[in-house]
Every structure is written in structure tokens, then in C-alpha cells.
UniProtKB/TrEMBL annotation:
Entry binding sites for heme b: 198
Protein name, entry field: Peroxidase
Residue numbers annotated as active site: 73 (proton acceptor)
Binding locations of Ca(2+) 1: 74, 86, 88, 90
Organism: Hypholoma sublateritium (strain FD-334 SS-4)
Length: 370
């Protein structure tokens, strides 16, 4: 891995960005174009511009998907019994340890992409802040995604996360819900954060020799299609020859269904919440945004952080239609798992069944940020 121990030694020695949460009047930033309630936030505008243009390249692509995944894998590394720092950036600083955890398979790719940017801006943002900032900025590259708040001021991480704190796609629903419950998340919040993040995501390394296999038909749109596709009967499978560990057969060729997603969509404790998001774009975006913000405060004291949400670019409005059944599919192909509500009426896409293309993989961006 390109991005490794060099970061660990460097970032641990850097001071935090000073903040002053008491300021209320907007101030003109040194760049002469931006204003901020707190002058400390001014330093973040160039960081945001850099990662938008040179890391995400203004696209809801592989790097944006990876940055969102990193938010979760870093933040969930905390437990009331095992310890850990939560959303503190330990997954970057102590990557030599945390990347050995099975649940972090594939995280090295996004760390390689983010690493040069984190190093470049390390005097401005701590690792924990950078991961949360990049995650918030990644979302607004995707049409339909919410613009979530960003708070600055996380301390440097002190140690690696304990192992076995990140849920895996092979886990059963009880294990997943208990892991989330230990850090204060309800089953409904679990569905929101898992389903929402997988709306703009794909599988790397789960399927051997295949990268960027989408979880639904629309991986570049933050939409509710994921909540339909995961409930379809498993009649087709990806072109790799069938399901692997943590993966189940899907009804949409070219996509892959995580076993954990399929179970959450059908379990009595979560099925009705899962179905309730179908074609409820605003509800899904709001619930997801609240859950991600809650993740960002794990291990942190919100009152000691500074609200720098104004540095996050505006979200891209919804520019797509409602969720649909894929060609040849209908309500007869849905595993109706909620006993208290009727599944929404959806139209079926015209034409023969097609294969969803893999998500294009990001090229190395280290040269653009060094």
C-alpha cells in the first residue's frame, strides 16, 4: 500500500487547528471570496476545493463512494467495553493495524486516494476531521444526497481501534443490531445508514477479481432504488459465476447483494423500515443524514467542536425519477417482508433485461495533490 506508516509518524506530531466557538458574526476569509461565522473555518475552503476538483473530480464516482465508506469504518471503531476512539481518524493514522481487520478489506484503496490530500492539508485538519470532511463533501457529489453538517476540532487519534468492531456482510441481523445498539443506534437508524450508504456504493474485493460491482442499478445516484433491488428474488447473479462469501444472488445482472443487506431487508425487526424508504426520497435522505451526523460524533464531544458546515458545497437536487422494477420484473418478484404495509406501486422499466456496468475505478490522484 502506498499510503502507510509515513502518515502515522507525521500526523501524530501536528497541532490542532485552533477554534473559537463563541464567534457569531460572519467574517470575510483571507481568500476575499468566502465568509464564515468562525474564522477558523476559513482554512477549510481550500481543502474542500482541492478534494472536490482533484480527488472526487466533481463526480459521484469510486473515490466519493470510498470516502463515504471510510466515514463509517473509522467512526464505528468504538465500544463501551472494548474502547476505541470512534470518529478520530485512527483508521488512517494507525492503518498498519486497522487494515489487518477482515472487515476493512478494500479500505486501503480509498486510503491510498485520500492519503496524499490528508498529508497535504495535515496542518489544517486532523485525520478525524479530514475523514468526516471528505465524507460530507463526497455526498454532495451525488444527486439526491443530503448536505450533512460538518464539525471541526477532533483531536489527533491516540491508538488504533480494537478489532472486531466493524460489522461484516456475513454477520447475522442480531449481531449487526447489537453492535450498533452498543453505540446508541436503533434498528431504524441502522437501516437508514446501511441502505443509504449502499445506494451509492459497490463491492470491492468481496467478489474475487472484480472491483466496483454496484449494489443497485443506480450507484451514482443517492436514491431509493437499493430498497427495491435488495428485495427482489435472487434469480440472477453477477458475471463472476455466482455468490461468494458475504454475497447472495441478485435479480439484477451486474450487481451484487450483500448478505447482510438481504437479511436486514427481510428481518421482522427491520423489514418495515427498509420497505418504508421505497420512493420516499426526502425521508430516506433525512434519516441517512441524521445517522451519519450521529456517527461523526462517536467518541467526540460535540460541544467541544466547531460547526463549519458552511464549507460544505450545496447538494445536487434530485434529477431522477422514482424507483422502478428492472425490466421483466414486477411485484411478483419482490419478497414482501413487511406485514403491516403494502409494498408501493412501481412501474417496470421497458425493454429486455440488461447488465449493470461496474463503477469505473479511480486513477491515482497522488500527483495532483502533492
Amino acid at each position: 500500500m502506498v499510503f502507510s506508516s509515513a502518515l502515522s509518524a507525521f500526523v501524530l506530531a501536528l497541532p490542532l487547528l485552533a477554534v473559537n466557538a463563541a464567534r457569531t458574526k460572519r467574517s470575510l476569509c483571507p481568500d476575499g471570496k468566502n465568509t464564515a461565522v468562525n474564522k477558523a473555518c476559513c482554512a477549510l475552503f481550500p481543502v474542500v476545493d482541492d478534494i472536490v476538483d482533484n480527488l472526487f473530480t466533481n463526480e459521484c464516482g469510486d473515490s466519493a463512494h470510498g470516502a463515504l465508506r471510510l466515514v463509517f469504518h473509522d467512526a464505528i471503531g468504538i465500544s463501551p467495553t472494548a474502547g476505541g476512539g470512534g470518529a478520530d481518524g485512527s483508521i488512517a493514522t494507525f492503518n498498519a493495524t486497522e487494515l489487518t481487520f477482515p472487515a476493512n478489506l478494500g479500505i486501503d484503496d480509498i486510503l491510498d486516494d485520500l492519503g496524499p490530500f490528508l498529508l497535504k492539508h495535515a496542518a489544517t485538519v486532523s485525520p478525524g476531521d479530514f475523514i468526516q470532511l471528505a465524507g460530507a463533501v463526497s455526498l454532495v457529489q451525488c444527486p439526491g444526497a443530503p448536505r450533512i453538517p460538518f464539525f471541526s476540532g477532533r483531536a489527533q487519534p491516540k491508538a488504533a481501534s480494537p478489532p472486531n468492531l466493524v460489522p461484516q456482510p456475513t454477520d447475522d441481523v442480531t449481531s449487526i443490531l447489537e453492535r450498533f445498539a452498543s453505540v446508541g443506534f436503533s434498528p431504524a437508524e441502522v437501516v437508514a445508514v446501511v441502505g443509504g450508504s449502499h445506494s451509492v456504493a459497490g463491492a470491492d474485493d468481496i467478489v474475487p477479481n472484480f472491483q466496483g460491482i454496484p449494489f443497485d442499478q443506480t450507484p451514482s445516484q443517492f436514491d431509493t432504488q437499493i430498497f427495491v433491488d435488495v428485495l427482489l428474488h435472487g434469480t440472477n447473479f453477477t458475471d463472476n459465476g455466482g455468490p461468494q462469501s458475504g454475497e447472495s444472488e441478485t435479480a439484477v445482472a451486474g450487481t451484487v447483494r450483500l448478505q447482510s443487506d438481504g437479511l436486514l431487508a427481510r428481518d421482522p425487526r427491520t423489514a418495515c423500515t427498509w420497505q418504508s424508504f421505497v420512493n420516499e426520497q426526502s425521508k430516506m435522505a433525512e434519516a441517512f443524514g441524521a445517522a451519519v451526523l450521529k456517527l461523526s460524533f462517536l467518541g467526540q464531544n460535540q460541544h467541544e467542536l466547531t460547526d463549519c458546515s458552511e464549507v460544505i458545497p450545496q447538494a445536487i437536487p434530485v434529477n431522477f425519477g422514482p424507483a422502478t422494477f428492472p425490466p421483466t420484473k414486477s411485484i411478483k418478484d419482490i419478497d414482501e417482508s413487511c406485514n403491516t404495509a403494502k409494498f408501493p406501486d412501481l412501474r417496470t422499466q421497458p425493454g429486455p433485461a440488461t447488465t449493470i456496468a461496474p463503477i469505473p475505478q479511480a486513477e491515482s490522484t497522488s500527483g495532483s495533490s502533492s
